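=== Per-residue structure ===
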Amino acid sequence: MSQFFQIHPDNPQKRLINQAVDIINKGGVVVYPTDCAYALGCHLGDKSALEKIKRIRQLDDKHNFTLVCRDLSEISTYAKVDNGAYRLLKAHTPGAYTFILKATSEVPRRLLHPKRRTIGIRIPENEIALALTESLGEPIMSTSLIMPGDEMPLMDPYDIREVLQHHVDLVIDGGYCGMEATSVINLVDEVPEVIRQGAGDVSVF
């Protein structure tokens, strides 16, 4: 049975944030809010937690996972960022975008696209998500909470608890945070490529 924390969306309670991070560090899978929709997250180094997320979402090995980071400086540890990509990241983070970049050796191989060796990177404009990454001290391995057969993410924390209470370790109720996935922008090549149009404005790319 999963735990259920109600965390204030503007002023996250530090005690609950630290408890959530403790669950992540112990191999737990958590549902947490972002600026677009709720996401599934776990420790980036925990293989069994990753496998649990893949089972929940029924994902194959070609799925591009995302590292949710706290700031730009953290991104450079996990992704190769040239000057052009850095300018785009600086202009559009935090925000409703996932950027696909070449991964560094700091990223576990099981998180990478098997052929392209890429990783999704994002900084959400959400106080709870940022507080979690700040307390954790590293990115959260994440994917949107879109259940198999659904086109849109689950959006109501109580519905999420009903569906996933036996499959995740914690559901964080951070209120309504939207139900549209991020826009995905590929920055691997010289010219940015829009992979998916979502909540973020893609006309700027």
Remarks:
- Residues 3-195 form a domain with the DHBP synthase fold (CATH 3.90.870.10).
- The chain has one domain: 3-195.
